Amino acid sequence: MKIRRLALAGLAWAAGCTRPVPRAAGPGVVTITASDYAFGVPDTIPAGLTTFRLVNQGKELHHASLVRLGDGKSVVDFQTALVTAMKNHTPPPAWMGFAGGPNAVTPGDTATATQILEPGSYLFVCWIPSADGTPHVMKGMLRPVVVSVAQRAAMAVPAADLSITLTDYDFRVSQPLTAGTRVVRVKNAGAQAHEVAITALSPGKTLQDFIAWEQGGEKGPLPTGRWLGGVGVMGAGGESEFTTTFAPGSYLLLCFWPDAKDGQPHIMHGMAKQITVS
Q1: CATH number of the domain residue 35 falls in
Q2: What mean pLDDT do residues 89-118 have?
Q3: Burial class, 35, CB count within 10 angstroms (exposed 0-12 / middle 13-18 / buried 19+)
Q4: Which burial class, exposed, middle or buried, applies to 72 when counting CB atoms under 10 A from its CB (0-12, 13-18, 19+)?
Q5: What is the bridge-based pairing of β-strands 96-98 and 110-117?
Q6: Distance between CA atoms of 206 and 214, rounded to whole angstroms?
Q7: How many whole angstroms separate alpha carbon 237 and alpha carbon 215?
């Protein structure tokens, strides 16, 4: 499987629909179960600060990218726009936005993402492709969710241990990572939509090995190990938090989202960084 195909699905889409996470509020928790190829999630959830907990029960890599639909738009409208974008390599309609969600997680593992949700109609989508190159969304892996006007009660929210700022085209990490369970604040300060996917490198492998594999120059298995989540695609100004546990070793921060100008995944514009966890 070439992971880059999730970025090459013709989805050069950039729109924002998240808001900064305030320190005074606390999240409710919504569990999402991912299988091959479906999501299990409540039909309706309250607006406000929410932690999405993605449990990958499938045999493939999955994430839960959150897409907000414009007023009056439906799943059918989304599917029609998706087919049009893939066929014609066109940007999305203005009524579609991207609100984060938990990023890619290895089968059997769990990932989280915390963010403020505005009332409205949303879809959970998995853009990741199977070995045959077909994005999971085209195999039916999408799930509508209504975010109701009802607000969650305020709760304490843990302080972030560090932050990752997304730009066009880089990851700025506020301080070195150390092993353990870490809460990471993510903000998209770029003009385009971006994500951060995190994966452990296999022993002896580097970022250059990963890029070569992506471009077809390196044969054999993907030179990475466990995928630890992160935050799915957010529009400009979007903010979210995620929590994950790091062991000592080398990791990659990656953005696969297509560039708005040339359609190439942002990793090909240099938005890929190797970091060391001590």
Answers
A1: 2.60.40.420
A2: 91
A3: middle
A4: exposed
A5: unpaired
A6: 13
A7: 30
pLDDT above 70: residue 258: yes
Instruction: Give the three-state DSSP class for 6.
Output: helix
Spell out the alpha helix ranges (H) of 156-277: 207-214
- Domain span at residue 70 reads 3-277
Distance between CA atoms of residues 157 and 29, nearest Å: 12
Among the ranges given (18-22, 97-101, 227-231), the one the predictor scored with the smallest mean pLDDT = 18-22
pTM for this predicted structure: 0.87
One-letter amino acid of 208: Q
How many domains, the chain? Answer: 1
Relative to beta strand 65-69, strand 120-125 is: antiparallel
CA distances from 184 to 28, 57, 179, 247 (A): 18, 24, 13, 15
For the cut 80, the answer to whether the pLDDT of residue 186 exceeds it is yes
- Distance from C-alpha of 163 to C-alpha of 166, rounded to nearest angstrom: 10
Alpha-helical (H) ranges within the chain are 75-88, 207-214
Contact 79, 91 (CB under 8 A): no
